[in-house]
Structure formats: C-alpha cells, structure tokens
C-alpha cells in the first residue's frame, strides 16, 4: 500500500510541477530554480526541449545519489522521469490554457512557483523527488540541520541570478517571486510534525 501511495504522490507532484512550468512560467519566460530552472534557461535561449534538458542535467546528481543514498536514487528516478514526461506532454496545451486564462506575469509567477513548490514538497514529504537539486538538497539536509525548502531556496537564488543576467532583469524579478512562492510551499509541505 505504501508503494502505491508513493507512486500516486509522484504522479500528483509531477503533474503540479508540469502545470506550473508549462502554463504559468514558460509563457512569461519566468524561471524556477534547480534543474528545471537550468532547463528553462536553456529553453529560452536555445529552444531545447525542457524535459530532455532536465533528464541530461540530472545525470551528475543521480551519480551522487547512487553513491550516497540508493533509496533516494531509486525514488527520485521515477519522479524525474514522470515530471519530465508530463512537462513534455502538457507543453502543446499551453496555447489552449492561455486562451482561456491569462493572469499576467506577476500572478503567473506566484501561482507557477506555488504549484512547483507544492508538487516538489509533496514528493519530498514521501522521500521522493524529481531528481534535481531538490534531491541534492534532501541529501544535504540529512547532514546539516537546515530545512529542505531553505536549501532549495538558496540554490534557486543562484540559478535565477544567472538566468536574470543571461535573459533579462524582468525575468529575474518575476523569477524571484516564483522561487519565494515555491520555497514557501515546499517548506509548508515538508514541515516535520
């Protein structure tokens, strides 16, 4: 039963991440942090597919996970594959979503970040992840007394700072809003009882 629950959380979390990415962040060239943020930067500059870039960028982190904690490796592999697949599957529906719902960059940044943070937080609560820097943050939190959401927030800040320099100052501003919203959602979902 626990295995089914974990897979259900992976699917739900991945769906939230894909919706937040494709429908809220991408239309306004807003970044998230972590591997998704790196994939978004590469997509905005070079046009490469986001899901594929996530897969390729996750390889070094999965190597670390394989060495340090095989359980997280296996749990995160599923999360990374499913979230990358959902991002690719939902991307063609972006136009249809924007046709009916247009929120503007500020609101989209908040909602997109919150959806990504909630999806990630749910997965982390069940000891799984998308295999990006959230996996690395989860491994670091085992050795340091920092909340996973705080570690992710710091990593995300670094990535969107670089993205802001490469893309635009406006992208940086809205991306800050996105990662703050996502960091809050992740922290709430990963609070210890």
From TrEMBL:
Which keywords does the record carry?
Cell membrane, Membrane, Transmembrane, Transmembrane helix
Plastid found in the keyword field: no
Principal place of residence: membrane
User: How is it placed in the membrane, per its record?
Assistant: Multi-pass membrane protein
Q: Does the keyword Transmembrane helix apply?
A: yes
Report the coiled-coil segments: none
Localization (cell): Cell membrane
Lineage, top-rank taxon, reads Bacteria
Can you name this protein? Uncharacterized 5xTM membrane BCR, YitT family COG1284
Q: Which species is listed as the source? A: Paenibacillus macquariensis
Q: What is the lineage of its organism?
A: Bacteria, Bacillati, Bacillota, Bacilli, Bacillales
């Amino acid at each position: 039963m626990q295995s089914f629950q974990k897979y259900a959380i992976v699917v739900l979390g991945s769906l939230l991440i894909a919706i937040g990415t494709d429908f809220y962040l991408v239309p306004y060239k807003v970044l998230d942090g972590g591997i998704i943020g790196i994939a978004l930067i590469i997509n905005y500059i070079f046009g490469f597919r986001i899901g594929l870039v996530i897969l390729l960028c996750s390889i070094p982190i999965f190597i670390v996970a394989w060495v340090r904690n095989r359980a997280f490796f296996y749990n995160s592999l599923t999360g990374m594959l499913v979230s990358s697949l959902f991002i690719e599957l939902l991307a063609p529906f972006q136009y249809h979503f924007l046709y009916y719902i247009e929120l503007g960059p500020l609101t989209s940044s908040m909602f997109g970040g919150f959806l990504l943070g909630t999806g990630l937080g749910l997965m982390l609560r069940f000891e799984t992840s998308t295999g990006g820097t959230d996996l690395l943050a989860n491994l670091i939190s085992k050795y340091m007394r920092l909340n996973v959401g705080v570690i992710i927030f710091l990593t995300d800040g670094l990535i969107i700072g670089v993205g802001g320099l490469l893309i635009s100052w406006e992208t940086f501003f809205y991306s800050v809003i996105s990662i703050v919203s996502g960091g809050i959602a992740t922290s709430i979902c990963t609070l210890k009882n």
